């Protein structure tokens, strides 16, 4: 086996997000595309009257993205079919107070309340084993696996118990979604293969088919109820709003 020299490894990095006014950014972006494999953390940043987003990527770079965090999460959700109503429903079965964005094994987890002026989301996929701990400085330290064997540590003012609760909730939802999609896959194609494709991109058509069937079943049930209660089915405006609600992307807000 070839021995790897220390020179081939990137230096570890420590980023302190407790004092935002003293941050030194590595780059500024007007446009930015969130990706599960390259992001570690995003944080809402209200600065000089502008609502922008702090992003830490797997290269350890601290980025100022001049867009709202909700817009970035909404685009990610649309790409991976993460619906706001689905997340809200699944999160009701957990003890987490803030709703995250979960797609299969990919978990974008809020560590603070969604109304927080500095709401923080982390990509749990890239946490190191035992990736969080309490600091003697009265804060929490998150450890992420960066590129080139780099460890990226981030200091935040969030209690360890809160971090554990939110990560556990996202893990439960991840498991439920994987089991559901395995069932869909098995019903339509007769095999299990999601272990080989954790991002579920290959299931894009099945996602859309399953969503259409789910809507039609719900619409039929509500038509039956409306007929019994009011003597007529749902009107078209109700159906339009229902469909809009079911396919609205998760955007990391309470709206």
Automatic annotation (TrEMBL):
Protein name according to UniProt: Uncharacterized protein
């Amino acid at each position: 086996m070839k021995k790897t020299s220390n020179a081939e490894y990137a230096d570890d990095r420590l980023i302190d997000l407790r004092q935002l006014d003293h941050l030194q950014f590595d780059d500024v972006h007007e446009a930015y595309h969130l990706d599960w494999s390259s992001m570690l953390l995003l944080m809402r940043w209200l600065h000089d009257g502008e609502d922008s987003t702090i992003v830490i990527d797997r290269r350890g770079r601290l980025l100022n993205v001049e867009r709202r965090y909700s817009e970035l999460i909404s685009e990610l959700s649309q790409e991976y079919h993460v619906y706001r109503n689905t997340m809200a429903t699944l999160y009701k079965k957990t003890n987490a107070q803030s709703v995250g964005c979960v797609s299969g094994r990919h978990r974008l987890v809020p560590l603070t309340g969604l109304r927080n002026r500095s709401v923080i989301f982390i990509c749990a996929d890239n946490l190191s084993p035992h990736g969080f701990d309490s600091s003697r400085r009265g804060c929490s330290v998150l450890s992420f696996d960066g590129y080139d064997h780099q460890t990226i540590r981030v200091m935040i003012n969030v209690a360890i118990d809160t971090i554990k609760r939110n990560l556990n909730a996202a893990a439960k939802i991840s498991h439920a979604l994987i089991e559901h999609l395995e069932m869909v896959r098995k019903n339509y194609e007769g095999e299990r293969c999601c272990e080989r494709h954790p991002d579920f991109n290959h299931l894009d058509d099945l996602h859309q088919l399953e969503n259409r069937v789910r809507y039609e079943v719900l619409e039929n049930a509500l038509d039956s109820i409306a007929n019994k209660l009011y003597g007529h089915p749902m009107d078209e405006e109700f159906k339009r709003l229902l469909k809009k609600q079911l396919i609205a992307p998760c955007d990391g807000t309470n709206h």
